[in-house]
Structure formats: structure tokens, C-alpha cells
């Protein structure tokens, strides 16, 4: 008898879990707040690593389909200074272990691999509680409820399932991205397209508190993250609902930088979007609570470090595999999953291995310093 699994959140973590459970014959339902798979832009490119994200896809039986999503040439990298001078360049020879895909296409691959109706769209969870019999009740914002034999919170940073397990809440880390897009860049923004090149570009200025990062997505789309170290109060002084005023305020911070680089701000085709970075306490754990657990950002949110989506997928895959490996003993499965997940979440990123995988041994040490994640 396979326990029915109720998952909250159809992000990459929840969907990977749903797919692995489906492969192993578990009945599974995913409740997602968004009204449909296409109701929101799914964000930019993700590099899916051979040591975590790809292992999850293997467990999901989707590695044959994955290569079709990979965008060729996107592992190339350029580093510029604020004058647009090229400091470092690495081409993509197709052998890197971090192939780049569009997040939305990866999500769709997982959705297509689930039986019709698995995801209940437009089901936003407003609360959860433990019932007298130990099971968990989930309440949606339309007032309806479901009772879960096994409940998994895959509902991201502001999880509504997490309070069943722990009181920790995300805290602002002091950095943020301002996100912009340029469309049809090769024709409409040729100098900027050239500066970004075929993969990613980082432009660093004199202060480590400002940089401009961009990536060539599918087609001729450039996606930029303008990176700041500033307080939330500093950002509150900028009215992001006034697109022109926000653009002017952000552009002012990069006065004197090469225009082909600052065009990622001044010529943006979309209103600027502020994305502050939050984290849960590093290494936090919770005591085992019967019938409920968390995967991905809900469990171990960190500021973006290139691993979050990959780890969410690996969590989902490992939880699905643990449930399949402990037939009839959900608690043993959850304990085994959480033990490995906690250890993984407490393991600091291996900076040297990261540098090696990004740049090989080509990058000058002074530049490598700029890419340290802590
Ligand atoms: C700017 C930025 C850039 C990043 N770049 C990278 C990168 O390059 N590589 C990488 O690996 N990671 C990256 N990350 C991290 C990555 O996005 C996350 O770690 C990853 O998305 C976590 O996946 P998840 O499935 O746990 O949660 P999410 O992707 O957040 O999915 C959660 C899902 O739950 C749904 N949900 C939320 N609340 C409710 C509710 N109350 N009821 C029902 N449904 C709900 C949401 O709509 C969503 O669909 C980046 C993050 C940011 C902010």
C-alpha cells in the first residue's frame, strides 16, 4: 500500500518529487497557488549541475529528454570592467558540467511527465494545522480544505507548511538583484548583445557593492541581474511602481560605466523588478514531526548561489526515492531523507571546485576573488 502524498507547490522541487513518486507508483497531488503553468514568467536560465540537478532528472527518468532543453553555447563567460574592457573570456566547448536551460521549459518537462490533473492550479494555501489523529489539514484561500496522510511543503521561501515543523523565518541578507530584460538584442541592442556574448557576462566596478550580470537566454533575449549590497530601507526610497523613475534611480548608480553595459538598465524592455535576497539560518534543523516534511527553499532557503533549484530538485528526487525504499514505513523514509538533506544543507559550497567548474584553471586569482559566494 503506497501512502498518498500531498505536495504544496509546483516549483522544480515539488514537481521533481511528484514525478519520482509517480514513477514508483505513489498516488500524488500537487496544490499550486498560480492559476496556470503559464500565468507568470518563470525566471531566467538555470545551469543544471551533473552533481545534483542532473542526478534528480536521472531519478525522474527524464535524462533522455533533458538534452533537448539545453541551450548551446550558454556556458561561455565574459568578465568586463566598468569601462567595458574585457578582463577574461571563456568559450563554451560543450564539455562543461553545467548545461543551461530555461527554467520554464524544465518545469514544463516535469509537468508533461505527470498524469493529467496531478497539479491543482489556483490552490493557494493559507494555513496548515495538525489534527488530533496526527494527520495534517491544509486550508486554501477559498476556504476549502484537504487532509493529508503525508504532507510535503515545496512552497518556497515563504512556505505555509514550514510552521508545522519549525519557527524559523527568512531574513534579508543585505543584497538584492534588480532584474531587467532586453528583447531582440542582436538587432535592437547590438553593442550590448556583443558585450554579453554567447553566454553570461559580469561587469564589475570599483565597488564590490555594485555589479551588472547578464545572460543570453533563448533567442536574442538578454536577462540582467543588477546586483546591489544595500539595506531594504535604501531600496524603499526607490519607487519601483514608477518604471521611468526606478530606471533613472538605478542607472544613476552606474554613472560613467560603459553605455553598452548600462543599456541593460536604461534600455530595458520590461519594468525593473527588485528581488531582495533572503535566507533561513544556515544549518537549521527541526525535530521529526510525523507525516510532514519540506523540500527545496521551504527547507533551506539561501541567497542565490547557483545551487537552489538544483538542490530543490535533488531533495524532491531523494525524498521520492526514500519513500519508495521504505514501503509501509513513511517515518523511516522521512527520517532518512531529512538526515541526508540536513547534512547537505549544512555543507558550505566548495569555492575551489566551483571556480574550477566555472573557469577551469584559466581565471586570474584576483578575478576569482570577485566570485566567491560568501
Ligand atoms: C534572482 C534569483 C536567481 C536564482 N538563480 C538560480 C540559479 O541560477 N540556479 C539555481 O540553482 N538556483 C537559483 N536560484 C534559486 C532558485 O530559484 C530556488 O532555490 C528554487 O526555485 C527553489 O525551488 P523550490 O521548488 O523549492 O521553490 P520555488 O521555485 O519557489 O517554487 C515554489 C512553488 O510553490 C508555490 N507556492 C508558494 N506559496 C504557495 C502557497 N501558499 N500555496 C500554494 N503554492 C504556493 C509557488 O507559486 C511556486 O510555484 C535563484 C533565485 C533567485 C531569487
TrEMBL record:
Function noted in UniProt: An FAD-requiring monooxygenase active on some tetracycline antibiotic derivatives, which leads to their inactivation. Hydroxylates carbon 11a of tetracycline and some analogs.
Keywords of this entry: Cytoplasm, FAD, Flavoprotein, Monooxygenase, NADP, Nucleotide-binding, Oxidoreductase
Enzyme class: oxidoreductase
Cofactor annotation: FAD
Domain (FAD-binding): residue spans on this chain: 2-165, 291-338
Subcellular location: Cytoplasm
Positions annotated to bind FAD: 47, 103, 297
Domain of life: Bacteria
Enzyme Commission (EC) number: 1.14.13.-
Subunit structure: Monomer.
Region forming the signal peptide: none
Cited Gene3D superfamilies: FAD/NAD(P)-binding domain
Entry-linked HAMAP family: TetX_monooxygenase
Catalytic activities: a tetracycline + NADPH + O2 + H(+) = an 11a-hydroxytetracycline + NADP(+) + H2O
Matches recorded under InterPro entries: FAD-bd, FAD/NAD-bd_sf, TetX_monooxygenase
Domain comment in the entry: Consists of an N-terminal FAD-binding domain with a Rossman fold and a C-terminal substrate-binding domain.
Key word Disulfide bond present: no
Protein name: Flavin-dependent monooxygenase
Predominant cellular place of this UniProt entry's protein: cytoplasm
Family assignment from sequence similarity: Belongs to the aromatic-ring hydroxylase family. TetX subfamily.
Ligand binding (NADPH): 40
Amino acid at each position: 500500500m503506497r501512502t498518498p502524498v500531498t505536495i504544496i507547490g509546483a516549483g522544480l522541487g515539488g514537481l521533481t518529487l511528484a514525478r519520482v513518486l509517480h514513477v514508483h507508483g505513489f498516488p500524488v497531488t500537487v496544490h499550486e497557488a498560480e492559476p496556470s503553468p503559464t500565468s507568470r514568467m518563470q525566471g531566467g536560465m538555470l545551469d543544471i549541475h551533473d552533481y545534483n540537478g542532473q542526478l534528480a532528472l536521472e531519478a525522474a527518468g527524464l535524462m533522455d529528454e533533458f538534452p533537448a532543453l539545453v541551450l548551446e553555447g550558454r556556458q561561455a563567460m565574459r568578465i568586463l570592467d566598468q569601462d567595458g574592457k574585457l578582463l577574461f573570456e571563456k568559450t563554451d566547448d560543450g564539455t562543461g558540467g553545467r548545461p543551461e536551460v530555461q527554467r520554464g521549459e524544465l518545469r514544463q518537462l516535469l509537468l508533461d511527465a505527470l498524469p493529467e490533473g496531478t497539479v491543482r492550479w489556483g490552490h493557494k494555501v493559507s494555513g496548515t494545522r495538525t489534527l488530533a489523529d496526527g494527520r495534517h489539514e491544509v486550508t486554501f484561500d477559498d476556504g476549502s480544505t484537504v487532509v493529508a496522510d503525508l504532507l510535503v511543503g515545496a512552497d518556497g521561501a515563504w512556505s505555509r507548511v514550514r510552521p508545522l515543523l519549525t519557527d524559523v523565518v527568512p531574513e534579508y541578507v543585505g543584497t538584492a538583484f534588480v532584474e531587467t530584460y532586453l528583447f531582440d538584442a542582436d538587432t535592437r541592442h547590438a553593442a550590448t548583445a556583443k558585450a554579453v556574448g554567447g553566454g553570461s557576462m559580469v561587469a564589475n566596478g570599483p565597488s564590490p557593492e555594485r555589479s551588472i550580470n547578464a545572460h543570453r537566454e533563448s533567442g536574442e533575449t538578454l536577462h540582467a541581474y543588477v546586483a546591489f549590497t544595500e539595506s531594504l530601507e535604501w531600496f524603499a526610497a526607490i519607487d519601483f511602481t514608477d518604471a521611468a523613475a526606478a530606471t533613472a534611480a538605478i542607472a544613476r548608480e552606474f554613472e560613467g560605466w560603459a553605455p553598452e553595459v548600462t543599456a541593460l538598465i536604461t534600455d530595458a524592455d520590461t519594468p525593473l523588478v527588485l528581488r531582495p535576497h533572503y535566507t533561513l539560518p544556515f544549518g537549521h534543523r527541526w525535530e521529526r514531526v510525523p507525516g510532514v516534511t519540506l523540500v527545496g527553499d521551504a527547507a533551506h532557503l539561501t541567497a542565490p548561489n547557483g545551487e537552489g533549484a538544483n538542490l530543490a530538485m535533488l531533495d524532491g528526487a531523494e525524498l521520492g526515492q526514500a519513500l519508495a525504499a521504505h514501503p509501509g514505513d513513511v517515518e523511516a523514509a522521512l527520517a532518512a531523507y531529512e538526515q541526508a538533506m540536513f547534512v547537505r544543507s549544512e555543507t558550505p559550497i566548495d569555492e575551489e571546485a566551483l571556480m574550477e567548474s566555472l573557469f577551469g584553471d584559466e581565471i586570474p586569482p584576483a578575478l576569482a576573488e570577485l566570485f566567491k559566494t560568501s
